Amino acid sequence: MKSFKEHTSLVLALLGILFSVQVFIIVERTIDAYKQELASNYSLVIVSEKKLDTKSLVAQNHLIASMEVLSAEHVIKKLNPDMSHKSMTLLQITLPKFYKVALVHYPSPNELSRLTKKLFKMPYITKIETFAKAHDTTYKLLLLFQKVVGVFAITVFIVTILLIAKELRIWQFKHNERMSIMGLFGAPTWLRSAVLFRLAIVDAILATLLAIVIFSYFIGSSWIQHQLEVLQISVTLFDYTSDSFVMLGISMVVAIVLAFFVVLGHKEEV
Predict the structure, then answer these.
(1) Residues ≥6 apart with Cβ < 8 Å to 66
(2) Which pTM value belongs to this model?
(3) Is 229 exposed, middle or buried (0-12, 13-18, 19+ CB in 10 A)?
(4) How does pLDDT run across 125-181, given as a tens digit for each residue?
(5) Which end of the chain has fewer CB atoms at under 10 Å, N or C?
(6) C-alpha to C-alpha distance for 49 and 69, rounded to whole angstroms
(7) Which class is 43-130 in CATH?
(8) Phi, psi dihedrals of residue 175, rounded to the nearest 5°
(9) CA torsion 90→91→92→98, rounded to 10°?
(10) Strand pairing partners for 46?
(11) Residue 125: which H helix or E strand, with range?
């Protein structure tokens, strides 16, 4: 029981760091997937006085994924279903050309602005409909949500770092007598502080395993799957291979570095 209590504080502190980092990663992945979904449903409409070379236009603009001609025939039929074929053909000749432009990804307002300016420099293009108001609102909401999660993750990370440093300092005081006696016998600093580093490594592993269990349960919950279905996106929330190694690396580095600084502080005091 005593050993369990000794490990609990540091494990929970490390778990807080891993949780904040992984939540930020999950949010980033979800936003990226949602942007791809938005990009597949978002498009520009270009109006040109003459026919455009679509292949050339796509090749010159890396943001454009594809471009197709919008037929005006069905619109004309709705406006005047009794119009003769000859009259419809003549009207189509006089009307400007309409193009639907699909983009590679959901653009930022700056990317959209640069693209429209570049397109307007081309001859014959008279109008570009970007649906800017709806686009800017959606993009700003995504950006705001991303920043809020980022601030939350950084705050939790800083607070947890302070808690870990405090916990390791308590452990230093607990073993201060033993470390001082070993120092009198000429034991090097790393040997005197071996218990701190062992604590850091063991607790880093425990925190990582606990985090993997929590996120495994989290991503498998029906509520999370329902939310993804509502958003109509497919995203890997937790990659067992890469994410597990990232969490283990973060917890190891944080715990060992903080233990190292605690050891340096003890040396300075002596």
Answers:
(1) 58, 101, 102
(2) 0.68
(3) exposed
(4) 888 877 766 667 777 777 787 788 888 878 877 887 777 777 767 766 766 666 666
(5) N
(6) 13
(7) alpha beta
(8) -105, 15
(9) 160
(10) 99, 128
(11) strand 125-129
